[in-house]
Every structure is written in C-alpha cells, then in structure tokens.
Amino acid sequence: MHHEFNVVWFVLLGILFAGYAILDGFDFGVGMLYLLVKDDAERRLLLNSIGPVWDGNEVWLVTGGGAMFAAFPNVYASLFSGFYPVFMLLLLALIFRGVSIEFRSKEPMRWWRNLWDTNFFIGSILASLLLGAFAGNLAYGVALNARGTYTGGFWALLNPYALLVGITTVALFMMHGSIYLVMKTEGNLHDRLRGWVNNSIIFFIICYAATTMATLLYDRHLTSEIRKHPVFFVVAILNMLAIANIPREIFHKRDFRAFLSSCFAIVALLSLLAIGLFPNIVYARNNPANSLTIYNASSSPYTLKIMCIIALIGMPIVLAYTTYVYWLFRGKVRMDRHSY
Amino acid sequence: MNTLWLSRVQFGLTISFHYLFPPLSIGLGVMMVTMEAMYLKTRNKVYESMARFWTRIFALTFGLGVATGIVMEFEFGTNWANYSRFVGDVFGAPLASEGIFAFFLESGFLAILLFGWDRVGPKTHFFSTIMVAFGSIFSALWINVANSWMQTPAGFHLVLHHGVLRAQITNFWQVVFNPSTMDRLVHVLLGAFLSGAFLVLSVGAYYVLKRRHEDIGRRCVKMALVAAIIGATAQLVSGDFNAKMVGKYQPAKLAAFEGHFPADAPAGIRLFGWVDSKTQMVYGPRIPGMLSWLMYYNTKASVIGLDHFPPALRPPVNPVFQSYHAMVAIGMALILISLLGVFYWWRGTLFQKRWLLWIFVISVIGPELANELGWFSAEVGRQPWIVYGMMKTSQAVSPHLPAGEVLASMMMFGIMYVLLGALFIFLMNRKIQQGPEEPTVRPSMPPPIVEGHGRLDA
Questions:
Q1: Domain limits at A301?
Q2: Contact yes or no for B432/B206 (Cβ under 8 A)
Q3: Is residue A338 included in any domain, yes or no?
Q4: Which residue(s) pair with B302 in the sheet?
Q5: Which of B101, B179, B254, B426 is spaced 20 to 30 Å from A64 by Cα?
Q6: How confident is residue B1, by pLDDT bands cut at 50, 70 and 90?
Q7: Is A77 part of a structural domain of the chain?
C-alpha cells in the first residue's frame, strides 16, 4: 500500500482550512467589530472592506468540506453527523451573515439596516465560536464507537475546553479583523480602529494563555507528540513571536506586516493542532483504538492520487485569480455606486 | 416520524428551495454574456445599461444560491453519514472538483463582475462575466456527474473497507462519463437557460406593458425570445434522449413516469391522468403504443413494466407520474409561448399583443416549476434506491442521529427559508420596479440614512 498520498491530503486539508481561517477569519472579525461603529457611512465602509471578497473566502470552507468528503469520507461522515447541532447552527449563522451583507444597504429605513447589522454581528460571532468549538472538540477528542461513529451526544460537545477554544477563536478573529480594517481604512475611523487592535490583542493573549494551560493539563495526547519531537517547539515559539510582533508593527504603522504576522499566527496555531493530532484526525478519547486516522478513514490510494492531480491542476489557477482579485481591490476602501 | 423520514423531508425541502436559484444564475449568466458581447460589438450604451441591470438581479439570485448551497454540501455528512461512508471514495471527488473548478471561479470573478465596473476596462469586465458564467456551468457539470453516478453507477467496484462495504473508483473517467451524465447535463443546462431566458422575457414584457424603459424592455423580449425558442425546442429533443436513457438504465423509473404496469407488453402514454397503484388502474386519455414507439420506433415493441419488479423495489408511482407529466406539459407550453412570440415578432405585431405580453410576464414561473418537477421525477423515480441498485435510501441515513435534532433543524430551515423566500421576492420586485438606469442619466450612490427621520423619501 502506498500511504504517501494520505499524508499529502492531511497537509492539503490543513492548507484549505488554514486558508479559510485566514480569509474568512478577517471577515468574521470585521463583523464582530461592526456594531462598535455607529455612523451609517462608516458601517458601510467596514462592510465594503470585505464586500468583493467575503463570498470567495467562504468557498474555502465549501471546498475544504468537499475535499474532506473525497479524501477522508469516514471523517466527514462521523464529524458532520456527530456534530449535527454544531453544523446546523453554523449554517444558520453563515446564511444569516451572508444575506445580511446582501440585504442591509438595499433599503434606507433605519430599522431595516439595524436589523441586518445586528444579524451580521451575531452571525459573525456565532460562526467563529462554533468553528472554534469544533476545533476544540477535535483537539480534546470525542467518544467514538468501533465503527468510528460519534456516540457522545449533544451536551458533550459543549464541554468547557471546547468552549474555551471557541472564545479564543473569537478573540483571534477579532484581532485579525481589526488589523485588516486598519489596513483598509483611513482618517478618523482608521485612528479609532488602531486603538481597538491593541485591545483585541490583549483579549486574545489572555484567551490564548488560558487555552495553552488547559491543553497542557488536559490534552496529553496532543502534547506528547511535541514532547517526542522537540523540533516542533520551533512552531510554538514562532507562533509566540508572530503574536508579539503584531503590536510592534502596528506601533510602527506597518499595517500590512502586522496583518502578515496575524496570518502567520493562525497558520502556526493550526499547525500545532495538526502536529498534535497526526496521524489521527478524530481522536477517540474513550478508546484511542477507535480513532479515525489518515489511514483507516481515507479513500483508496487511486482516488487520493486522482484528487492530487485535480488539486494540482486547479489550485494554482485559483490562487492566481484570487491574488489578482485582491490586488485589484487593494488599498483603502473606496465607495462607489456598486458598493453594498 | 423517525430520523430517516425527517432527513428525507429536510433534504427534499432544502434541495427544492436551493434549486430555485442556481438555474436562474446559470441562465442569467448566459444572457449577461450576450448583452455585454452586444455592447462591445455595437458600443451602444443601451446594452451596457441592460448588462448592469441584470448583473444586479444576478447578484441576488447568486447570493441566495450560495447561501442555500452550503447547506447541501453539509447535509450529505450530517444526515446521510452511512451514504457518505459508502460513496465517499467516488462521490467526494466531483464535489471537491466543483469547489476547485467552479465555486472559486464564480466567486472570484463575481467580485469583478459586481464591483469592478469602474476599476477594469470593458473587455476585462466581459472576460469576468464569461468566467462567472463558465463557473456556474462547471458547477452544474460536477454536481450532475455526482448525481448521475447515483442514477447509473459506473467505473467502481465494491470493497470491504475495515469491515464495511463501500464503493471505490476503478476508472475515474467512467465515473465522470457514466451512462447518464451527458444526457442529464444537457437537460439540466437547457432547463437553466430557459429559467434565465424566461426571467428576462418576463421583465422585458412587463416594462413594455407598463411603458417604462421601453427600449430596453423590447430588446430584452427579443433577445429572450431567441434564447427561449432555441432552448425550448432543444429541450424537447433532450427530453426524448433522456427518456430513452432512463428506459435503458432505470426501467422502473420510466414505467413509473407513464404508470405502465404489465411486466412485458407494448406501452402507451397518457396526456394526463391518475394512477391507483393498488388496483394498478390508470385513468386519463391514452395514446396506445406511443411509449413503445418513442422508445423503439415500433408501436408493438414491449416495454418493461412495474410488475417486472417486486413491490418493494418500485418507486411511488402516482407522485412520479404526476410530476413527470406536469414537467412535460410545462415544456410543451413553453414551446408554444415562444412560437407565438416569434410568430408575432415576424409579423411585426408582437408589441401590440398585450395578452401575449402578459403571458410572458407570468411565464417565468414555468421553467422554474419544470426544473423542480424534473428533479422530483428523477430523484423520487430512483427510489427506493439512493445509489441505483446498490444502496437503499433507508440504509443511508446517519446512525445515532436523534430524531429530535433533525426535527429542530428542519423547523429552523423551514422558518429561515420562508423568510428568505419572502425577502427574495420583495427585493427582486424592488429592483425590477427601480429598473435599469437609462444610459443618459448619471446614476447616484444608494441613499444614505437621514438623521432624525424614520425613512427617506427616496
């Protein structure tokens, strides 16, 4: 049996979800900070800072889900059916968030705009919280039976550790979004946003410290991998350096570099999770032998190979025009008659 | 109701609502490409106005298509986990390909299509419109590959994977071009083109009737009529191909389409009717031997009937019969409407025939309904199988999924979709009432909120 493709797809899935977290992460962050701005014109600026790209950013999630289905069907089946209420609420949040962006500026009534603005805010926070709680449950491990089916029930999904990771994710995206907004705005609004970056960094660091302590105390299966291969400490250290670099770059008004640091921090955090889990994807806390791994939960080597070819053809093109679109809409937000 | 039935109802509900939007986007995409091409060729600002107007309508249908589409991607795993385990090796590849080749393309270039009018030149914008249209067509391609494989599975073998039987790809191209892919793809795409064409026809006719934006209205009507007559006629041919294909690969479904029970006898068709499965009686005007002729060009040829299959392996006959017949009837009506339109256009009296223009206005419902009914016929006609001949729908549902959770999510979707549907109609109507910006008028920004007032007069 050739198993190299299993590893390749584990990494590729990681890249897809990291891409999603980086891109939709700042969309969510913008949504969370959105209600702090009261003026309608300023709110529209915030909204249009993500206007042309939020939709494409969400495609990373859809493609990630499709790729998980194709490469690790048993993981897809177990997670999606086992975490049923989480995914249904996530759908609710994503749909309401999406249509709020579409609908809010279509009518001038104040109640109309306030209604959709509130939905946008709640949808952004709820989606981040749920995605974080999902990652938290993956890190913590869940109850699986011998066939790899989730048997833990609804309330087990709301364990304190998962909720803590959920809140940390909210803080992370809030910080990420605030840096993005600093890049995209100017003038008075820009100066106010600059202050929020520092507050959101403090919020994130508190959450991050708590999560790290909880992980060290309760998730020995995650940390043992890093203890075995101390070289991975480099990732953890780079992660901390990246986070520490953000306030420095913001202070020197190098906003884009601050944003890159924040992107790097997201990648490093997900890498730590991936390193800790490997070769498991879903860790069975009740009985580690039941865990879904990149080997027992995968598609056949032939399918994984075909999927590699598809990704090899498709993803460079995707990256090329995605880069073009971001380049086209680069710089500070400008409003025109096509804006939301 | 148990988890299985709740999941069936929820999937039916969410897919039906979702499928209102993609055909409109696909069809409008092609119409928008045509309008921008006309603009680039003639440099007539009217076509630019038209393209800009339809882009705004497109944004709305696309937005709802995306929002309701994510649900579908999740539901295979959430509600049909055993299905996902059984088919993931085969079925996942087209779904992932749809993301990589279609969704990224659509959403990436949509940014330029919607927000790039003043940032790129007309040619780059035209290119983006083409890419968005291609993206929506690729999306139809890959999802059809996936669904057609469920209808006529090919290019796979069954393997025991850690003690559980599952399908694995043996030949990727046989999966992609399984026996029903191409026939069904053409049928679905033509259905989508008709949705777009009749929407443009409907709105154009409305403007002509109301004497608003008359120039643009007339151009929309003419452009849409050309698309409609080609699409509707081609759909008749495609329908014939599909019926023959279904007869060959899914005989129980074809028999249900026409309520044909005898195991081995010549078959007729009914113009309309009612099937009583218990007594095996079919009521309604009948053309004897017609189905045999349509299938084999011989009125005496025998067609496999439902009695050929044990009762447990038959689809529910009357619902399939009704939806299939309604779809065909709508298709015929669309041909008739387009023929009438083209006839009066040729006579030069099209825009005086107010009764016909009013028919155009309401005709937009036709293709949308036919698309829904077509899916219903195809999917319910496949029952009790989820993968034809391989796995039953009853075996596919998620184990350990509490019925209460599905009931809750179904109610959530129900309320949410009623709300979204109402908002869609409201905003669509609002955009149509606002109409395209006439080429000479310099358009303004959307209205801001005025402090101190509840709403703005604009």
A1: 4-328
A2: yes
A3: no
A4: B266
A5: B179
A6: low
A7: yes
Inside any domain, residue A105 = yes
Q: Indicate yes or no: CB of B104 within 8 angstroms of CB of A105.
A: no
| % chain A with pLDDT above 90 | 49
Convert the pLDDT of each residue in B352-408 to its tens digit.
Answer: 889 999 999 999 999 999 999 999 999 999 999 999 989 999 999 998 888 999 999
**Is A77–B443 a contact, with Cβ atoms under 8 angstroms apart?**
no
Is the confidence at residue A48, as pLDDT, over 70? yes
Chain A, chain B: beta-carbon pairs less than 8 Å apart? 251
How near does any CA of chain B get to the CA of A186, in Å?
Answer: 20
Out of B89, B97, B398, the one facing A303 most closely (by C-beta) is: B89
Span A154-197, pLDDT tens digits: 888 889 999 999 999 999 999 999 999 999 888 888 888 888 89
Question: Is the distance from CB of A259 to CB of A183 less than 8 angstroms?
Answer: yes
Domain count along chain A: 1
Please give the average per-residue pLDDT across A324-339, as a whole number. Answer: 83
Residue with the two structure tokens 């979702």: B18
Which residue ranges make up each domain of chain B?
Answer: 3-434
Tokens at residue A199, please? 């507050």
Quick check: is A335 in a domain? no
Spatial contact of B412 and A88, defined as CB atoms under 8 Å apart:
yes
- Greatest C-alpha distance within chain B: 80
Cα B348 from Cα B217, distance rounded (Å): 16
Percent of chain B with pLDDT over 90: 61
By Cβ distance, the residue of B104, B445, B449 closest to A40 is B449
